[in-house]
Specification:
With 182 residues, the chain is mainly beta. The protein has no helices and 15 strands. The chain has a six-stranded antiparallel sheet, with no helix packed on it.
Amino acid sequence: MPDSQDPTLTLRSCPFPCALCGHYVAPGTIRCPRCGVLFEAFAEQATTIELIREPRAYSELNPPSELLPDDRVVLQFFPSAHCVTLDLDDPVVLGRGALPDSENVVDLTDYDARQHGVSRRHCLLKRDDTHLLAVDLGSTNGTYLNGTRLDPKQAVVVSSGDRLILGTLHMLITFHRRADHG
């Protein structure tokens, strides 16, 4: 519901029918006295205000295929749209559960990994110069890149905008520049 304190918004100025029950209500009424439905304020002559910030998200028509040294890799899981950001200074294993201390693991348990058929050590992601590589680690239910099943133990190049599927757990891979802090 819009902020009723916003000067660009006003409540209705004449009696109007409730959209749910049809009961006519007085101007300025917030809830229908008959059915209790909440009415939203509406803009009569609202103007667009200039923002003092840049957009935080953008869409690229030609996403980069090169993974630059300062880039981060973002895994966006579907259907939740939750994101995990990886610096990939070292290779990481995508899987579920705890692994030995010697391995850097992204535990996908919170994304229903077991129900999606994700193995404990399912897929490896690593930098190779200016590329991101994915390697299926002999998983039970396979790793797919843009719909094609990967051969176990064979590295493939992943580009920003590619779809990676572990078992049936879907994710979108994107590369993002680290924000300047100065």
